[in-house]
Amino acid sequence: MDGEGTLVNKPLVRGWLLWGLGWSFFAPVVGILVSLKFNYPNFLNTEYTVFGRLRPVHINGVIFALYSTLFIGLAYYMVPQITGVRMKWERVGRPLMWLWNLGLAAGFVTLALGYNDGVEVAEFPWPVALVLWLAVAVLMVQILATLAVRKEEKLYVSAWYIIAALVWTTVSLFVGNFILPYHVAGINNVSLHGLYIHYTVGLWITPTGLAVVYFFLPAASRNPLYSHRLGLLGFWSLALFYPFVGIHHYIFSPVLDWTETVAIAASLMLIIPVAAVLVNFYGTLKGRWHTFIDNFTVKLLVVGTFFYFFGSVMGSFEALRSIQTPTHFTDFVIAHSHLTVFGGYVVFALAACYHVWPRVSDKPFSATMARWSTWLIIVGITAMGFGLIVQGLAQGTMLKQGVFFVHSLDSMKPYWLMRTLAGVTMDTGIALVAINLLRGKK
Amino acid sequence: MKRAKVIALTAGFVFIMAAIGVQALIPYFTRDTHTTKVSTWVRTDLGLLQEVDGEARPYQGKVKRGREIFIREGCWYCHSMYVRPVAGEDRRWGPVSQAGEYAYDIPHTMSTRRIGPDIIREGGKYGDDWHRAHFFNPRLVVPDSIMPGFPWFYKKYEKPAEEEQEEAGRKLTEGERQRVLPVESEFVPNEDGEAVIAFVQFLGMNRGKWRNAYISRLAGEGSNAIADNASLARGKKSFNRRCAGCHGKDGKGDGPAARFFRKVKPRNFTRGVFKFRSTPTGSLPLDTDLYRTITIGVRGTAMPPWNMLPESERWDIIQYIKTFSPAFKKEKPGKPVYVPEAPEPTPAMLARGKNLYEKFQCWQCHAKDGEGDGPAAVGMTDDLGNPILPANFTNGQWKVGPRPGDIFRTLMTGLNGTPMPSYRSFLQSESDTWALSYYVLSFAAE
Q1: ipTM above 0.90 for this complex
Q2: What's the mean pLDDT when you consider all of chain A?
Q3: Which of A55, A199, A250 sits opposite B74 (nearest CB)?
Q4: How close B155 comes to chain A (CA, Å)?
């Protein structure tokens, strides 16, 4: 699949990745600022940067700016190679890039100004949401049109995930941004929101992230995909179970009990796609494990699969009522979200950048710096993930035993300081990836 | 091409729609999910607490505005809003959440995280005064808090034009009802601030007087502690962390938060005068009296219930509080009033209570309708010279406690340091005291 010479619109991919790498400085730094407020509540406490206004900037920043922008850039690189044709309506790509990124920038400003829709992960005010929604819809049409005229007869696994993710997200962004803030009252709003939250991570980040691994792991290790059948199993089990899991965010709330039970069962079933995907990935490396040593794309993809596995399985068990009793509402959940979104998907996207950026910009990168950044990312996310797990279990069991709330909060403070340090470590790691790629080998 | 279409339609569209159908649409068309019914606690005409079916109320006016600000500031990222039926949460926060309570939420604010405490049962836990200090800087009242302050909810205080001075028999003005103490802080909440406070005070109120029922269960009296050096040291540490924000490090009732208070000042412990006792007028309280007050709080004032604070910590704090006043060294508390088991109220008993209310002219201060603005209410002060209002019986917030026995006890002992005397020598019999107690409680009937 080395058709980037004639098929890929290099300046377009470069543009999108440049924005994505730019956001990779922004969103994590906001995360550090937010985390400092746990230990220093007066830090940066102005009307526009109060915790409640900065937190959605971090979360939407990571999901829609950092991760999604990188992914769209990678999609413009992958789709022509999967299909064997140039992207249909290629010229749409650049205006779309400005629309998407300036829309996001406007979104962060409006969040700071206090325009918050009150729907977690769909906080952007409607004009910004409309821009993002249109961009995803246009991208879906563009990619489907490209697939319609493809030369490769067989549809590669990555394409399945990309198609499905774009359709899912067009639906779910509509639900989150245009239904939840205005319609459907009470516990029905809660149920629908539970679904929406998880559609954002499960039906956007997960499938697009897996598409990236399915494409770049064979490409970078120069080995064919291990098993097409396992690919089918992984894809269809994800498509079948993932849409049902969202209500596990509101277990023990007044929403209907049986919907919670369905969500818990579906959450456990997710172990199937996770296992299928992982076996397929590691099988692909069969006989090519030496590429793990010196190819940074392979190295980071494999690192990412570890956190993906751990975070995903943790998520499945987290849905159980017995595990939720102490852990829900605590940092245990935050551990899960960082392990999967950062440790898994953001790392996948960065790994792909190591493959793509030198090819679209003709700039090689420094291996020394790449080694440093890899270790910083590994140490940072490990410390954060496992620190937060211990922390969540500690506070959860304390509260279960009837400890005074402020006492439990007080004993969390040293952990929060460690969390900030872990965050600084992994953020330095990502920043080094971006700097390394943009600066090139000196 | 065939396959791409299959994926887009089947995996992409059909599966997500199936999930939305099963998980969201079926519930949507289930009648239970649209209920506005809640179980709510009311005070009956006989003055008893009862759990009945009630209707949730929509957000309106100031409360609605407060909710918008609550969403705008992202308060809901840290404060979850439902009590789960597990992990002892109904003991910690109050009754388990019901669907009807959320009937008017668009969008919902249940939240997924509890960095701060859950607040769905927050209404009435703390008085407005506490919130006025807390929103300005949470660490004034909770030194370990990590909540941000919201100084943009405040404006500079400007003294209102002098109100007409008193004439005999005049009713309280609205301003006097809202604010009886001179405002000491430079800043007072602006419209946004008052709206957020109104919203927080509304939370859980659809469940009516649940807190009365809850407090009645909490107020049981535990073991007494001995004041040794270790318990005094622990008591001091806890006092400085939990109490000093309002009561001051020296117990003088002049902590940094107190200057925001407009209704009731924090107790000055150095004077050794305590309102809520089981001991005769003028006497010191028992340890168990202080324990009861700390545990259930003082409704309507800045003093919250501390029932989740470990029992031993409460007893240690009591020992430490007693060191502020020399009185506890010199005197012993008097013999406590015996509060017998409360009888079942009857209409005849209530009628008798009404007669006694007339006879003892309770209405001079508390008014005929129990609203606390009787003819003698104007210009009333406590023995420190601070303005003070007679209790308003209709709002269902009982400073002394919500049980019939709490009213009984107060009638027998009076409230030291306030104009409320003891009626012990006037009330001829136990049954008269119960009659008057139930009559007083029945002012809060719906």
Answers
A1: yes
A2: 95
A3: A55
A4: 14
